[in-house]
Amino acid sequence: MNRRLEIDWVRSISICSVVLLHSSSLFVSRYSRLTLLGVTPALLCNQVTRFCVPVFFMLSGLGLSISKQPLKLPYFWLYRFRRIGLPYILWTCFYYLLDSQFNSKCLLSINSLYDLGKLLITGGAASHLWYIPVLLQLYFLFPALKCLLKRFPILTLIFSFLLSMVCTLILYIPLPITGWWRPYLWRLFPTWVFYFSLGIILPEKAADHIRVFIKKHRPVLVLVTVIIALVYSWDARHSGNLDSIKPHLFIYSPLCFLMLESSWDRLRRFPSLGSLSSFVARHSMTIYFSHVFFLRLLRRISFFNQNLLTMLLTFTIVLVLSMLVAVLQGAAKYMLKRLKINCLREGNEN
C-alpha cells in the first residue's frame, strides 16, 4: 500500500477545508431559507471543516514519525525552521506591510519592529498564521515526544490527551476567571499536543488493525462522523461559538483522518486524482500562507459577498489562485536551482 498517496489525499482535503472554512466565515450569520436543524449551508461548511487544523497537526506528527531522515540535533530543528520558519517570517512581513498599505517606514521604526516581533511570536499578522508558531513549538518538542511515546506510548498519549482536553475546556467553557488565558492557550502547544502525539504514534501502534476495523465497520463510522459533524454545527448555531477548539474535535478529527485515509483504497483507481492530490499536498503550505491574501482581495468586491453561490465561487477562485502561486514558486525555485548548477559548471570549467 502506497502510504504517501494516502497521506497526500488527507493533506489535500485538509488544505481545501481550510480555504473553505475561511471563505465561509463571512456568511455564517447570513439568513438562508435552506437550513438543517437551524444550521445554514454556510455555517455547516464553516463547522464541518473544523477538523482540518487538528488533522494538520496529526499529519505533521505522522510525517515526522515515518520520515527516513536521521533525527540529528540541532540539524533537525534547523531544517524544519528553514522549511517552515523562513517562509513564515516572509509571509508575516508581507501581511504586516499589506495592513500598513506597503509603507516601507513600518519596517524601519523601533516601535514597528517591536510590533512585528510580537506578530512573529504570536502569529498575529493574519488570522491564520497562529498555526505556524504552534507547529514550530511542536517541532522543537518532537525528539522528546517521540522518545516518550516509544518508551511509554499509552501513558504519554493519555497525558497529552488530558493536557489538551483541560486547555480545550478552559477555552470552550465561558468562565470569567479563564478569559485572560484564551489568547495564550490558543497559541501554545499544550492545546494541540494530543493531535501531534496521535500522529506520531499512528505508524507504530496497531495501524493495520485500525484499518481493518474501519473496513469492517465503515458504514457505522461514517454515520457517527456525520452525527458528530451535525452536533458540532448545531452547537455553534446555538452557542454562537464558532472556534476550532471544542471537546467534540477529540473524536471528530481522528475519525475524519481515518475516514479520509481509508477512502483512498477506493479512489486509487483514478490516477489523475492521485496526481492532483499529490500536487496540492506538496504545495499545501504555500496555499495556506497565500489564500488569505486572495480572500481579502475578493472581499473588497461586493459581488463576492452576496450569497452561497458567490461564497463557493470565492472558495474556488481563492484555491486556484493559491495553487497558481505555488506553481510560480516551484518554477522560481527550479530556475534558481538550474542557475546555481550552471554557475558551478562554469566555475569548474574555468
Describe this structure in a few short sentences:
With 350 residues, the protein is mainly α. It has helices spanning 3-24, 41-48, 52-66, 75-99, 110-122, 131-151, 153-172, 182-186, 193-201, 207-216, 218-239, 249-267, 271-282, 284-299, 308-349.
Description of the structure:
The chain has 350 residues and is mostly helical. It has one domain (3-349). The protein is 74% helix and 0% strand. It has helices at residues 3-24, 41-48, 52-66, 75-99, 110-122, 131-151, 153-172, 182-186, 193-201, 207-216, 218-239, 249-267, 271-282, 284-299, 308-349. The radius of gyration is 21 Å and the shape is globular. The chain starts with a helix and ends with a helix. The model has no long low-confidence stretch (mean pLDDT 85).
Layout of SSEs?
Layout: H1 3-24, H2 41-48, H3 52-66, H4 75-99, H5 110-122, H6 131-151, H7 153-172, H8 182-186, H9 193-201, H10 207-216, H11 218-239, H12 249-267, H13 271-282, H14 284-299, H15 308-349
Helix pairs in contact: 1-2, 1-3, 1-12, 1-13, 1-14, 1-15, 2-11, 3-6, 3-9, 3-12, 4-6, 4-14, 6-7, 6-9, 7-9, 11-12, 14-15
Which structural class do the helices and strands define? mainly alpha
Portion in helices: over 70%
Give me the Rg, rounded.
21 Å
Largest sheet: none
List the uncertain runs. Answer: none
Element-by-element helix/strand order: HHHHHHHHHHHHHHH
Shape: globular
How far from one another are the termini?
49 Å
State the total count of DSSP E strands.
0
Number of helices: 15
On the 0 to 100 scale, the average pLDDT is: 85
Number of domains: 1
Oligomer: single chain
Residue share in β-strands: under 5%
